Amino acid sequence: METKNIMIVGVGGQGTLLASKLLGYVLLKKGYDVKVSEVHGMSQRGGSVVTYVRYGEHVYSPVIDKGEADVIISFELLEAARWLEYLKPNGRIIVNTQRIDPMPVITGQAEYPDNLVAKLREAGAKVDEEDFLAVAENAGSKKTVNIAILGRFSEYLPEISDELWTEALETQVPAKFLELNKKAFLLGKESR
Q1: Which of 59, 101, 113, 144 is most buried, judged by most C-beta within 10 A?
Q2: How far does the chain reach from its first CA to its final CA, in angstroms?
Q3: Residue 75 scores a pLDDT above 90
Q4: What's phi and psi for 21, nearest 5 deg?
Q5: Contacts with 166 (C-beta within 8 Å, 6 or more apart), sequence order
Q6: What is the extent of the structural domain holding 62?
Q7: Range name among 33-37, 66-70, 97-101, 116-120 with the lowest pLDDT average
Q8: Least confident segment among 34-38, 45-49, 59-63, 105-109
């Protein structure tokens, strides 16, 4: 099997690390060789964060180079644009249309770019966009945006059963937040 490359990008505090743990868990359980990178970037709230998840028959490195990502899962709109050069031609971006202003925008030194979804499409990406913040709030907490996005992404991994995703949530999410996260996952999955 050809190695598949997934990048999870977002802003510190959005739950990218938990998302990569859950994804790594289901892929390992399915029998793939999986490499998950450390989080790169500012893990503090507000800084750009990226995690690499690579899986296949034999994976030797956790690093994804420019032009190699099959999928980018972006928790914030500008982050999708920031990491676009890592996407393969005709690769897919699953993007949360939520906008989180970076520091240069907050301080007035820059403006948040307009029409980013259209620009992603113009660059050749297959874009699957959704307001996952609204989906998470509908589930009961904006903190579940990461799980809602994974719910949508699960539709692109039909070989991974819903039961395996549920098992991953049960092993990685604290019990007091489990039902909330299960609901967010389901709403993300059904949000098309």
Answers
A1: 144
A2: 29
A3: yes
A4: -65, -45
A5: 182
A6: 4-189
A7: 97-101
A8: 45-49
Report, as an integer, the average pLDDT of 148-164: 96
Distance of CA 124 to the CA centre of its chain: 19
Q: At residue 183, what is the residue type?
A: K
- The radius of gyration of the chain's CA atoms, rounded to the nearest angstrom, is 16
CATH code of the domain in which 31 resides = 3.40.920.10
Phi (first) and psi of residue 34, to 5 degrees: -130, 135
A 10 A CB-CB count for 75 gives: 27
Split into its structural domains, the chain has a count of 1
Q: Please give the Cα distance from 134 to 139 (Å, whole number).
A: 9
The percent helix, strand, coil of the chain (3-state, each to 5) is 40, 25, 35
pLDDT at 124 over 60: yes
- Of 161 and 15, the structure prediction assigns the larger pLDDT to 161
The alpha carbon of 138 is separated from its chain's Cα centroid by a whole number of angstroms, namely 19
SS3 128: strand
Which residues are bridge partners to 35 per DSSP? 54
39-53, 143-157, 172-186: which range is least confident on average? 39-53
Q: What is the DSSP string of 77-129?
A: HHHHHHTGGGEEEEEEEEEE------HHHHTTSS-PPS-HHHHHHHTT-EEEE
Stated pTM of the model:
0.93
